[in-house]
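Take a protein:
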Amino acid sequence: MKKKRFYNNKKRNTKWTEQEKGRKISFADKYIEDGNGTDKYSKSRKREKKPIFTKEKLGTFAKYLIIAVGCFVIISIGYTVMDLYIDRNAMPLTENSEDSSADMSTLSLQLKSESIEPLSMDGGVMLTAVINELQENGYTSVTFDLKRDDGTIGYNSSLATIDMYGAEASPASDLEKSISEFVSNDILPVGRIYCYKDNIVGTGDLTAGIFANGKLYRDDGNNAYLNPDSESAYNYIKGIIEEVKGMGVTVFVLDGCDLPDTLGDKYNDGFKPLSEKLYKDFGNEIKLLESVSISINSDNAKAIDEEWKEKTEGVDGEDIIFRVKAKDKIKVKQFLDNQDGISYIISE
């Protein structure tokens, strides 16, 4: 049997342990760097890096940021509501007392125009290509949509109503510069406004839409309309004209001025009362043309002539411009150029 061993403390601190080194801990040890041999404060010692952002600082910053954003939102909403109120309740424009060199309202025009998409009015490469094409094909004017038949707006607008309802869609990126380029190339810019069919403001503004039998009116295609008797609707159309006129456009085509027959015959000639009201506000500074839309599907001279006579029979007026959807644009243009006193817009 193996004999058990017992251990004692006789040789403690003499074997398997290290001898004590150094000195007693002093209160100034935190200032001592390794190997410098002094307990005085040294500027060259490594300083403790404190974090720039602490939890408390981040919390304070977030609080002030929320307050600043909230104030900005409140001010923005206030200005938007104020602009909207001014748009809807704007006073009519006063006539200019100074003599004008040209009376646009009575000017007789014969336009040879082509319809283009607002997106091509970028003031740059696309616009240059459009101008070259217009000049090569003998057009003296160009027409672009300011307000389309679904209520969307084709240019970057600063009007509060347009901004509020988000009506812009595929807009011209630089309308003002593009207008200037057209004018400098002897091409007359014409803005087209589809007046009353409107699925944006007509459905979003209760004071501007048409109501029938106590509910918002919609036609067979589920389209809503602006009310010609509404001051809100009128100021909306007037605001678009006023804004774009400031960019250099003086000729405007009013399309879609008539309402569906299901609403009665009160607005069968919607162009006349609307144009009279606009002329009263703008005086002789603009020219308004009534759009008459037709489609020419023939592709030879004789058939085009017969189709034209059939579809324009009984259409007359001093300020009419024909918006022609042509199967063969070149041949239809050649035919229209031989018609005396005809203004037209050719589209595909």
Remarks:
- The chain is about 35% helix and 15% strand.
- Residues 152 and 255 are 14 Å apart (CA to CA).
- The radius of gyration is 39 Å.
